[in-house]
Amino acid sequence: MQRIMITGGAGFLGSHLCDSLLKDGHDVLCIDNFFTGSKVNVSHLLTNPSFELMRHDVTFPLHVEVDQIYNLACPASPVHYQHDPVQTTKTSVHGAINMLGLAKRLKARIFQASTSEVYGDPEIHPQPESYWGRVNPIGPRSCYDEGKRCAETLFFDYHRQHDLDIKVVRIFNTYGPRMHPNDGRVVSNFIVQALKGQDITIYGNGQQTRSFCYVDDMVEGFLRMMGTERGFTGPVNLGNPGEFTMLELAEKVLSLVGSKSKLVFMPLPVDDPKQRQPDITLAKEKLDWTPKVNLEDGLKETVYYFRNLLSA
Ligand SMILES: NC(=O)c1ccc[n+]([C@@H]2O[C@H](COP(=O)([O-])OP(=O)(O)OC[C@H]3O[C@@H](n4cnc5c(N)ncnc54)[C@H](O)[C@@H]3O)[C@@H](O)[C@H]2O)c1
User: What's the CA-to-centroid distance between 250 and ligand 1, angstroms?
Assistant: First the structure.
């Protein structure tokens, strides 16, 4: 049994990670400022004596005693991270400094939820971890992309300079229950629009592709990464290499929801990558991990969640 802290623990991925770690018998300290996360995501855990919820903003230092830290705090969708871009960079950079400082004091293993956005609009496809990326440093997405890149730099400098036990994963698009219904991410957008009978908004011509990983697979990848031997730092790509166009996704959602919503086409947002697919060779090799849940099954669970949420 370990005492494990999760920053951003009341968010989409964080709340599922809380569930898994508690199931495995650990003590979980969930830290969140509830910017995009919500108490509802962890309300079913509040009576569990091994679970503790603390309102805290990671841009400020924190003094607690734990054995491991998962650093997930950061708004993840463009709508949310562009709402207050300065705070987004602060969350990634000051948040990383504060959590790394804490891990250094405690000699605790620390995990960083980085992102495929560090690859920017990539020239190579699929992206291996050795690819350095193609990121605009001054655009509207930069607060997130560069914030996460700088956080990775800090993690690796703490590792080299202070021998800190770090674990860095780069997460590709993940979806599932407890995604925020209004975060503008494509899976939640399409499902919510289909359930409400609204037009489905497709950016560009819908031929741009994404790969989508179901949340249970992603959390399993986190746990496996955290269980690797000391000295294995990553970064490791985690995502589902199955690639779908936005049009294919829209059609799958429409058929699962049984909706007659129309497809409408809008201009592509600035710096939106045309194609994104993880190369997960390293994750297969080092973590013995591959995603198991196919898109259809994952979407069914997600539609079920949003149907209940919208009818509540
Ligand atoms: N979901 C994905 O597809 C995806 C892809 C790449 C990377 N990630 C990364 O994974 C992590 C979790 O993402 P998610 O999808 O669960 O998003 P989310 O927005 O649901 O979760 C982020 C959580 O962090 C909290 N938070 C934000 N700023 C904070 C601060 N300053 N102090 C304390 N808490 C703060 C939010 O309230 C929220 O609960 C993020 O770091 C994100 O960048 C997610």
Answer: 25
